[in-house]
Amino acid sequence: MSLSGQYLAATGVGLLLSFLSYLLMTVSQRKLVYNRVASCLKFSERGRPTSSSTTPPRSVSPEKKPPSNIPPSSEYKDIFPPWRRDALASAVVSPTSAGKDSLPGATIESSNPSFRTGLIPFTADYRTCAAPASTYTPMGIALTEIAALGDFPDYAELSGVPLPAPYPEFKIESALPRPYRPFRWAYHQTMSLTKLETDWWLELERDFAKSIKGRKELFVTRGKMMLDYLPGSELACKELMEMALQFLCARYPQYFSLSYSNDKGYVFHNGILKNETVVGDMHPLHVLLENVPEDFAVMVRNPEDGYYYLRGGVLCSSLGWSLGSKLGMQLKEIHGPIPDYKEKMEFSMDRYFSKFPTARPIQRGSWGLEVDKPLFMPPGDPHEAYRDYQLPRSELPISRVHLRVDWQTLRRLPLSGAIIFNFKALFTPLEQFRNEPHIPRLLSHVVRNGPENIMKYKNTWHVEHVALPALEVWAREQEDRGLVDKGWAVATLDESPFFPGWEGMWRGRQGF
Asked: How far apart are CA 358 and CA 160, in angstroms?
């Protein structure tokens, strides 16, 4: 069974963080990591069922595994992310706040023993702690200060990440996701990283109502497999929900708004679904389930060891795993089954999480090729079997082959210090690439010539016998039509993660 299905989202963010942490290292540390990775690179063979297809299964020769020489485990208990306490007073905007006069409270340093002993316990609910004035989040903020901020403070001010610009021309009836094509050549196991485009953190499309309905139905049948939370995640879940609703109201004011009254408190008005949500009547993750068709995983810092653990989330788009199978795990436990994770990624991932600032959210894309549009595929799902063999061409027309892109973001919350991994799964029929300059040749080249272990991880093999011939026909057509220069040297496009002329084509399809 392919590892790609089981660990697509988890591995994607792991590789992303590994690269960012590498950038933070000193020269000597980089040399150490380089030598370690170079000495530990290896491939492992995975058998495939016998197939009569003309596309042979990939195989590589295993090598002996050299001894691991990674540094000893680091202690992150005394390492904290950058604080933004100076933004507290200017973040007061809510009618439920105690006012600016009470903020900020007395400043405390992270080296102060009172701060270390006063860190909120890992499983504690911030609303019921016995000594809120002397109990702090990892961001150096006392619980009394959080109470003084009230509901829906100015998270743009608190985080240093601006709210999005309004999008008045947006029409939900015809809206399409942007055409993400995160293909790169030369292809290495490092990520193409960009700063988060803050206008596009939560991206809506015409299937909004259908997606919300499907996610709610999935929760009815799957329950805690796709939405759950553990003690100690209360502040992070509330903070995430409030940030998401603020974003929607700022980006799409023609569809969303927030109101406040003394009897109901905050009410979120959803003009697309034509309903309203009384925010205080349900858990924050259920507010997201009702209104935001994207996935969120909440990673909370444990003050006992400084490491981050999955403590809550709403995940309706996971392939080969589920929230229920990972909830409560530490970062390295989540990634444990991934080959070479301990040797190559664990150290840099933990290091990056410990220092990740609120003002620098990031984004990237992970991709794979799929039969049809598998969205939620927990272990043992019948659709998983498609990845283990190649269907006859008579049963797999090109119209059934899709690109799946998981467009991922990572950001730290400014009050709780929790880290949020967010992604949306986007499907594109492969036939659409026919008119997208360079994409057929680039994708064909990556699939044929990419490192075998990475292509096996992406699990393209089960559709290659149909996809590759079509891509190569379209690539020749583009050369004949003058869309692409003949003899083009395949390389990552300047427009990556898009392609030349993408915006005009995208706007033309959706009409705005």
From this structure: 7
Angle at 69 between CA 66 and CA 73, to 5 degrees: 140
pTM, to two decimals: 0.85
Task: Give the strands of the sheet with 256-261, arranged side by side.
Answer: 256-261, 265-270, 275-278
| Cα–Cα dist 43/38, whole Å | 13
Q: Which of 12-26, 179-193, 338-352, 452-466 has the highest mean pLDDT?
A: 452-466
> 461-481 vs 439-449: helix axis angle to the nearest 10?
140
Q: Which tokens belong to 180?
A: 């993400």
Residue 47 has pLDDT above 90, yes or no: no
Q: Which residues, at least 6 apart from 110, have a Cβ–Cβ distance to it below 8 Å? A: 80, 83, 116, 140
Question: Are 408 and 420 within 8 A, CB to CB?
Answer: no
- Return phi, psi of residue 365, to 5°: -125, 140
Q: For residue 452, what are its two tokens? A: 């075998």
In whole angstroms, give the CA distance from residue 108 to residue 173.
Answer: 51
Q: How many helices, marked H, and strands, marked E, lie in the chain?
A: 16, 10
Helix residue ranges, H only, 71-229: 113-117, 143-149, 155-159, 208-222
Q: Could you tell me whether strands 419-429 and 275-278 are parallel, antiparallel, or unpaired per DSSP bridges?
A: unpaired
Whether 177 and 203 have beta carbons less than 8 Å apart is answered as: yes
Alpha carbons 504 and 506: distance in angstroms, whole number: 5
DSSP string, 140-157: S-BHHHHHHH-SS--HHH
